[in-house]
Amino acid sequence: MEENKKIQDLGKEKNQIEKDAAREEKKTVKEEIKKVEGKKETIEKAEEKIAEEITKQEDKKEKLEDKIEKEEKKTGKKHIKPEKKKTEAVVNGRDIRISTKSAVAICKFIRGKDIEEAILKLKEVSKMKKPIPIRGEVPHKKGIMSGEYPIKATFEFIRLLESLKANAVLNDIELEKCRLFCMANIASRPYRRFGQGRHKRSHVTLKLIPQKNDR
Predict the structure, then answer these.
(1) CB neighbours (10 Å) of residue 141?
(2) CATH (one of 1.10.3210.10, 3.40.190.290, 3.40.390.30, 3.90.470.10) for 89-210
(3) How far from 38 is each of 48, 50, 68, CA to CA, in Å?
(4) 46-59 confidence digits (pLDDT tens)
(5) What pLDDT, in 10s, does the model give residues 140-157?
(6) In angstroms, how far is the first alpha carbon of the chain from the final one?
(7) Are 107 and 184 in contact (CB under 8 A)?
(8) Cα separations (Å) of 93 from 110, 132, 192, 201?
(9) Are 141 and 131 in contact (CB under 8 A)?
(10) Helix (H, G, I), strand (E, B) or coil at 198
(11) Which carries the bigger pLDDT value, residue 171 or residue 29?
């Protein structure tokens, strides 16, 4: 009999422990739910504040627009924002199918010159009347130590210079007071068919920059 009572008492203790553990779990769950709800409330309040600020800014913009419209009606003139006059013209040639060595040589040949002069000289090169000085593994040419006639590259440069000239004219830039800035870099060179060598690619940047000391 005593053993049965002990077993019953142990069973009661076990049940009581399980009930206490379940109560504690419920309490912790309720506390966590309250915390989450509090966070949600803070997030909602922050969102409401942001929305209020946005509406205030929109109201300010609308009021300013109304004032501008009233002033325009009074004066009969529209409010036009002053546009900044461009002083430089730029042309970027990407992945051009020319040698980087010849592109660098042409950049040195026309850098610091007038755009009209540069176009004329490159046209002479395309007609093989005037070579472009190139150093290293190049035979001598008449009038200079060593040079070449990179006809394909010269045609690409003439095309870029013509577009640069058109951009300058469009932006009302005085061509006589500007000089050329040129830069050529090697581009990503894709492989040929079956991996036999690579294609030649170059990046070219041309700028018309106003001359500081125009004499």
Answers:
(1) 16
(2) 3.90.470.10
(3) 15, 19, 45
(4) 677 777 777 777 88
(5) 666 666 778 889 999 999
(6) 124
(7) yes
(8) 16, 20, 22, 11
(9) yes
(10) strand
(11) 171
